[in-house]
UniProtKB/TrEMBL annotation, chains A, B:
MF terms in GO: catalytic activity
Domain of life: Bacteria
Pfam families for this protein: DFP
GO biological process entries: coenzyme A biosynthetic process
DNA/pantothenate metabolism flavoprotein C-terminal domain sequence ranges: 2-203
Entries under InterPro entries matching the protein: CoaB-like_sf, DNA/pantothenate-metab_flavo_C
Protein name: DNA/pantothenate metabolism flavoprotein
Amino acid sequence: MRILITAGPTREYVDDVRFLSNASSGRMGYALAEAAIAAGHEVILVTGPVDLDVPDGAKVSAIETTDELRMSCLELFPSCDGIIATAAVCDYRPRERVHGKMTKTGQPIVLELVETSDVLAELGAQKGHRWVVGFALESQDPRNNAMRKLRMKQCDCIVLNDTSAISSLENRVEILSPDAETQAEFTGLKTDVAAQLITFIEQRIAR
Amino acid sequence: MRILITAGPTREYVDDVRFLSNASSGRMGYALAEAAIAAGHEVILVTGPVDLDVPDGAKVSAIETTDELRMSCLELFPSCDGIIATAAVCDYRPRERVHGKMTKTGQPIVLELVETSDVLAELGAQKGHRWVVGFALESQDPRNNAMRKLRMKQCDCIVLNDTSAISSLENRVEILSPDAETQAEFTGLKTDVAAQLITFIEQRIAR
């Protein structure tokens, strides 16, 4: 198969220097890219800024903002069989980006944040015969929030992990089906979890 | 000498996952730590989250927020001969930090940002016989902004670099004295600039 994998954080700039982001290490996505290549698949990795070596054999598209992620995925998804979306996108961006670097004035500033576009929902809506595997990282009411995401993004399954997964070498995931069944649970190093997920996708998701 | 060096970005959390930060790599500060150790000095490195190996022989205090940087510096500065402050602190933090992870609602959100405390100004005000070397990264009116910082922070000199230095392996710096004279200019790899800066501090700043 030809698999599109998104990984890492995105950044949304307040000015030329400061941005909103998160501590996503990209490890889960990079581990999935390696596992997919090891299993004989072709991988295109759309990656935010992380400090990881690109897996041998992966094609890479480096992005910074959610909008760049969107453009890259819209271009690449049509030629792929499916997408595994592990990127921890910034859900919000400043409405305005200040040019240059804001200088302190001693006063508070008010930043209006608007939601970034929901890239996976957009891909899900046009998936056709392609499969879509989403990731959800939730701190409150995780199953319900994950299922809401699965439906909004038209995922074939969603991988639920909790906030302790960020920046960690390990992960514990639960895979939920569109009818809210637990299809599998994997625990361990992200590299091990990745290999099991790729096998799961081959056997249960890609048809 | 015993030198306190701050390096890297700080992070200011909006909720448990999202934060404001910048792309500071920490390279300038880590290169200065290495150069200082190579020159026979003792180094305490107060560092934000970066992907660099700690220089052999440096003592390290790992921090995330500007407030943690402040606590660490207030504790360590009194036992040092001087400070080189390269950390790219977040000048702003959200007034409130949301517990858990905010869930998207479809609506914009308004984030009130307040200035973080000026750690170097606080250290400068209590420096006594110690020396203070500041860094300024300015996009507009760089010399005047750097001189304003030098005075506010009671620096013995300030190292002016421009925004292209962020995340780069190279740097081009100008050292300004309290009477706004250019005392030196160094250009090249951050490792080379660091060695020259340490020599400059030994000869012109540390008395």
